[in-house]
Amino acid sequence: MKIAILLKSGPSSIEAQRALQVTTDMMSRGDTVHLYLLQDAVHLSRPDLKTGLTGTLDQLVDKGLQVSYLTTDVELRGLDTSAVLEKISGGTYETLVDLMTSSDRVIGML
Asked: pLDDT category, 99, cuts 50, 70, 90?
């Protein structure tokens, strides 16, 4: 099953912790998961951010998790897109809509 998880809460939030736990659980069941970072969640793409969540995110990416961030939200927060982790791709509202329509399930962790 293809599942899209949309996360808008920052890296230190309970929602971010919950999103990564749900992602871990779904991937362990064999589901394909795509995590899309919006609003303050785009901070998870910063290579200089070192938290327990970023370590978990790196491990999940190594196991096949696809991660994207909304480039507009990165720019609005003044983050340098050239410094974003290589494993995470930028996207637009169009790519977000495409992801949502092509997924079997969409989960919003807002």
From this structure: very high
What's 35's domain CATH number? 3.40.1260.10
Instruction: Give the whole-angstrom CA distance, residue 104 versus residue 91.
Output: 20
φ, ψ of residue 43 to 5 degrees: the values are -65, -20
Per the structure, the complete domain to which residue 82 belongs is given by 2-109
pTM: 0.91
Place of tokens 């971010």: 16
How open is the CA angle 85-86-87, to the nearest 5 degrees? 90
Residue 16: predicted pLDDT: 92
Number of domains in the chain: 1
Determine phi and psi for 104, rounding to 5 degrees.
Answer: -75, -35
CA distance 107 to 88: 19
